[in-house]
User: Fold this.
Amino acid sequence: MIDRSAMTRREQEAAVPSFSESWKMLSPRWKVIVVATGAICLFAASNLARPIVIQQAIDKGLVGGDTDAIVVASILFLALSFAGYLFQALSIYTVTWVGQQFLRDLRMRLFTHYQRLSMSFFDKESSGKLVARMTADMNALTDVLNNGFLMVVQALFLLIGTVIILFVLSWQLALISLAVLPPLVIATAIFRVYSSRAYEAVRDRIADVLVQMQETFAGMRVVQAYARERHNVERFGAVNELNYEANLKTVRISSMYIPFIEWLGGVGVGLILYFGGRGIFGAEVSVGTVAAFIFYLNFIFQPIQQLSQVYDMLQSGTAALNKVFGLLAIEPELDAARDAAPLARPVRGALEFGGVSFSYGPDAEVLHDIGIAIEPGQRVALVGPTGAGKSTMAKLLMRFYDPTAGAVSLDGRDLREVAAEDLRQAVIMVPQEGFLFSGTVAENIRFGKPDATLDELIVACEALGVHEMIESLPSGYDTRVSYRGSRLSAGEKQLVSLARAFVADPPVLILDEATSSLDPGTEALVEEAIRRALAGRTSVVIAHRLSTAEQAERVLVVDEGRVIEDGSHEELVAKDGHYAALHQRWTERGQSFEAV
Amino acid sequence: MTDEQLDLRAGAGLIAREIRRQALPLGLAMTCAVIWTVARLAIPVLTGETIDRAIDVPGGPKLDLLLALVLAVVAMAAVQGAAAAFRRYFAMSTSYRVETDLRGKLYNRVNRLSFDYYDRTATGQLMSRGSTDLHEIQLLVVLIPINTAFLMMGIGAFFLLVRVHVGLAVLAIGVYPIVTAITVRFFNKLFPATARVQQELGDLTNVVEENIAGARLVRSFGREQHEIERLGTVADQIYDDSMEVARLRTAYAPLFFLLPALGQLAILGYGGWLVTEGRVSIGEFVAFFQFLNMLVWPVQGLGEMVANAQRAATSAARLWNVLREEATVREAPHAQSLPAGAGEVEFDDVWFSYEPNRPVLRELSMRVPAGTAIALVGPTGCGKSTVAQLLPRFYDVEAGTIKIDGVDVRDVKLQELRRSVGLVFEDTFLFSDTIGNNIAYGRLDATDAEIEEAAALAQAAEFIDKLPDGYETVVGEQGFSLSGGQRQRIAIARAVLTQPRVLILDDATSSVDARMEEDIRGALQRVMEGRTTIIISHRLATISLADKVVLLDEGRVADVGTHAELMLSSDRYREVLGQLAVTS
Ligand SMILES: Nc1ncnc2c1ncn2[C@@H]1O[C@H](COP(=O)(O)OP(=O)(O)OP(=O)(O)O)[C@@H](O)[C@H]1O
Ligand SMILES: Nc1ncnc2c1ncn2[C@@H]1O[C@H](COP(=O)(O)OP(=O)(O)OP(=O)(O)O)[C@@H](O)[C@H]1O
Ligand SMILES: [Mg+2]
Assistant:
């Protein structure tokens, strides 16, 4: 299993100014925050005042026999209730409003940040973690924003207010009845420690359960192919049971805490009754005061239990906030230069690697001092063994990464000085895996040119020979597909990806093994279509099949991070070097095989 | 996804069955709830008695009686606490038991369904069955004993009130039916809005996931702005619906505060007057307030439970939709073991379609003699992968038969069939586990030596040894990123290790370069020796390993022969292999 705890520890260590950053996002709405805080306090105050009204009614009205006092108290009580109603309504609405605005802004900020981050970042981070920032962490924040803030302010106000009122009513009785406070606080603190630990265990166990479910469900085909169902069910049974036990542990802990608290409440009532009844420190205590104390007892127990609940919520909220802002603090490695300027139109498509070296990490260099220039409109093939660095060269052309030394340029301009948007429009890469976004087939093909007409799509698909297949789908171009499950064969997915690039019609096209799942017949068709449709466009094609190289105007042979041969197919074959040997083997194999 | 048919009655039945199985602990929880109620009600009664008999009496407080009553209060509180603890323990543990059992059933069921189900079901959907939906059910199970206690407390409190003064009781309680009605109404309105928020949060997750998995494409096509707008739409919807929830809460939640207060007002005014009239004592007056406070929870809790029960039934209905799903591919009752044999494979007049009226395979017949290899060649989308998936019975044919060693695959024990067919899929899936465990996936008892041998056979040993942790390197979604060719070789090693009777390689060399392909070719040659093999490939070097070639076109067998024969006789074959120009 993966060491999740190590990951979280590392994340927490990164000290992030998340609170000041959050405040920056919240401060434009400070007026509403003031109103919300005020409303919460006034609501709590109206709650606090009501037992006093009852106490007055008892002492003056009931014991004293003053009917007017009862009428006054009733009117006051009614007024307080309505005030409470209004302030509660106001606080709920304003607090949620601020919270939801903040969440929406934060979601957009984070997603926009994802769109700006460099590809090297996505290499390092698992997608599950990035998704969790946007889901689980946002949910934790929603809890805090919707309830946490409200509960903290209210509980603190109630608690402090109650203590003050009790002392004003009768400092003697207050001293006695607040004797329950220390055990309450201590018990709650101890409970907090144990239950936090237990809940942490629950979070780990449920994560294990979810991870195993996710993995099995996603890899179900492999599971069944290897008849692993029974074993999986057994293994899941164990993990599932561990989760149950972890949950049970939290129940056991709270089952010890709760009776103590309930009993303490009874002790509180007893203390108030006894000392209130017999008088204390020589002072007489009125019946109304005794009643009021009993009512106020609730205002001590509830806020403390609430605060302890909120504590957990606040902790996970803070952790979530730190993780989110930690991510936001990561600067994209490839920021466009300040003087990034638009490309001159029309883009000609001249590409150049000027003494480019590159390494992914601090360790091994992958490309070494590559210097080549590709003319506008040239059709170039990159060939070479696995791991030679072909895909890496393509990624540098897309500026997914920046070279460690040297410069990659388009139309004579260093890519680092080209506005990102212009670069994206000028250079498009089709990767190996035919990736489908959830949506219709048409939407997928329109990806690079949202305003393309259906006719344009059909033209592209016909050129690639997928039109008929798409038409035969249940709803033709409007058939819904998604990026995991899809009803297309591997090759069909690649064809749709290619159609997408066709419709976008870029000045420079890069195909990184974009036809690997196609049969050579279809592949030839695709290549022919590319030649026709993209006449005059620069194209860089990476393919393991040498037939592709034969069709190109220029072949670059890459090996161990260097371009070792450069020339047309014929030239290289004549040169009798690396490529010639490769080609020799390739054709021989076909021929000797044919001779069988 | 949302147009799923929900049978609420079946959902309720599912919950009822689970609850019945937990009758004992739930019964104990209810018993504790009764004890708790009695103790809980006794405290205000005792409080009132204390005030009336020991404190507010002519001639000053009676200290002995006061002490006795106070001790009684403290003792009752202890009983109440203990009962609360046991009630909670039994209720919570039962609810977690139910949740755990149901999750086990869900997992079990999903493991046993067939590929057509996975084709139409998103992983995320199943995940939410196993998390949020189960959580709703768990919540309901907890609420049952707790609300029973509340309900009893409410009824008890009402009777105590009536005993003191009927008119006052009716007046004070009068608001509560309204509170219950409002609660039900509130939650019924709230639920669609919260369900929408949940749905939208799911949409948001999808957009994010897709954008991370497809980050390269988004950048490549310069679609960042559009994707940001797409997320903005969802985020705005979430905001709007969350505010709708907030509006509902603003309108309703304060009522739960106001209405009980009106009841208290009735006690204060009318009750106060009754006290001055001498018809009600001050102690009873104070107790009244406490009772009324006690009623707020039960009444609200009841409404909440009604609403929660509805949600839980919906969740259970969704769960039921998975649990009642039957595998379309099922082991026959009389299924037999695969007889000893060398793996002769025969397709006889096979028809198949994934979707009605879109036949993918038509009257397909072919025979692979035991121990020989055939290559399946054909244009994109002609049905090669489909053929590969029919042999281990991932789908069942519509018409015709498929036989291994003379036995219809539908008559063979399913697990055994699948163990004897090794399939390397065209998209390699690796689990988030070590490379060693990934290779040993099909044979748990494999020794390290066997794993390394399989890796060596698949030409994977060399690169694995170079990895920082070798066979212990964690791969998969959260692990070390391998290249496509490397992943394919691990998948081949995985298949090789199981020593299958029939080996199927679906485009297993598409991501490797020519030199590597040659190495793998050498390896495959050894693996294939004496083993029935079906190779799907477009590459001459790989096709050349096969004894025979079957040309597939539009789901039919267009031609059969050796590569050389087909090169001579079939234009279509040459076209598919891109050799038309060479020979013509
Ligand atoms: N994201 C990455 N992080 C670290 N190293 C990487 C990364 N991507 C590739 N590499 C390493 O860089 C080297 C060159 O990889 P690259 O993908 O460019 O090769 P390639 O010639 O395209 O190979 P293939 O034909 O298999 O696609 C390899 O050794 C590879 O392991
Ligand atoms: N799960 C599915 N649901 C519906 N249709 C499908 C499904 N899988 C494949 N198809 C369709 O069935 C046909 C045959 O698909 P199959 O994957 O067998 O093709 P293939 O010959 O393997 O193609 P490729 O060479 O591209 O992998 C295709 O037209 C495809 O669109
Ligand atoms: Mg296929």
Remarks:
- The two ends of chain B are 52 Å apart (CA to CA).
